[in-house]
Structure prediction request, 107 residues.
Amino acid sequence: MHIRGDHAELVVGGRLDVRSAADARTVLHSAVDDGVGDLVLDLSELDSWDATGLGVIMGAHRRAGRCGRRLVLRGVPPQMQRLLVATRLYRILAIEGGLGVETLPRV
Prediction:
């Protein structure tokens, strides 16, 4: 997993899973704490995530809310869109451009 960017926009690539969760959490929390306004999380280079990785995203979302910020997901790959729909988290998370929920296969 790799994350690059600053307190306004981060690009996440590779796998966001149990092995990378602690490092990702540290980077995301620092970005939330050090900035103002929306924090854009570009997931276009993300290969996969598991429940732990999704938990890291949700933790950053909650932390951003407590700091008066908003976590915005950009470039969510289709397989991850399906997971957001299956878990109904697409209703909670800010997703740039929204999801084509009606075009995704049912899970």
Q: What stands out?
A: Residues 15 and 48 are 5 Å apart (CA to CA). The mean pLDDT is 90. Strands lie at 2-5, 9-16, 39-49, 71-74, 94-95. Helices lie at 21-34, 51-66, 78-86.
